[in-house]
């Protein structure tokens, strides 16, 4: 085999390896990537009422992130319960505000930046985002979308778009788990043997524990 043949063989092998590893198929979009980041941040939330994550992005680079929680060093809702006034938890700073304040604290400009939030922003956050120069709001879930917030975003020329992190991370993990266990319960009702059922339960538990 001469040098050219060897090179060709090497290129072919490299292509096969790339296909096997799934590089050609599984590249996630920027939207999925940033929204996945916000879902990860939401897992850091300390409020039991709702977990929200927000990621501020400029030129496809993450410049700040936040989740809803108490002030640094403060009492957490998960430890002492929420501090509820007029049906709102007043202990926490919202994820979007925390991300903006991180920029304020470290002197990072937010003008012309974009934000990825797990839930549609509340009216207060909407106004702060507009005032900070955010030009686009991408959200994964509708959340009491206030008509005045929508109006203000429109007035200010801020783009709002619903995007999901589908395929990037398992955002429906809990629903999948509930579904599998409801199927197992049905199998039991339909008379599946105890031994088989225990084996299936064991396998399901192994999957969902990871
Ligand atoms: Zn709370
Ligand atoms: Zn808010």
Automatic annotation (TrEMBL):
<feature type="domain" description="CMP/dCMP-type deaminase">
    <location>
        <begin position="29"/>
        <end position="156"/>
    </location>
</feature>
<keyword id="KW-0862">Zinc</keyword>
<dbReference type="InterPro" id="IPR015517">
    <property type="entry name" value="dCMP_deaminase-rel"/>
</dbReference>
<comment type="similarity">
    <text>Belongs to the cytidine and deoxycytidylate deaminase family.</text>
</comment>
<dbReference type="GO" id="GO:0008270">
    <property type="term" value="F:zinc ion binding"/>
</dbReference>
<dbReference type="InterPro" id="IPR013404">
    <property type="entry name" value="Competence_ComEB"/>
</dbReference>
<dbReference type="InterPro" id="IPR016192">
    <property type="entry name" value="APOBEC/CMP_deaminase_Zn-bd"/>
</dbReference>
<protein>
    <recommendedName>
        <fullName>ComE operon protein 2</fullName>
    </recommendedName>
</protein>
<dbReference type="GO" id="GO:0005737">
    <property type="term" value="C:cytoplasm"/>
</dbReference>
<keyword id="KW-0479">Metal-binding</keyword>
<dbReference type="InterPro" id="IPR016193">
    <property type="entry name" value="Cytidine_deaminase-like"/>
</dbReference>
<dbReference type="InterPro" id="IPR002125">
    <property type="entry name" value="CMP_dCMP_dom"/>
</dbReference>
<dbReference type="Pfam" id="PF00383">
    <property type="entry name" value="dCMP_cyt_deam_1"/>
</dbReference>
<dbReference type="GO" id="GO:0004132">
    <property type="term" value="F:dCMP deaminase activity"/>
</dbReference>
<keyword id="KW-0378">Hydrolase</keyword>
<dbReference type="InterPro" id="IPR035105">
    <property type="entry name" value="Deoxycytidylate_deaminase_dom"/>
</dbReference>
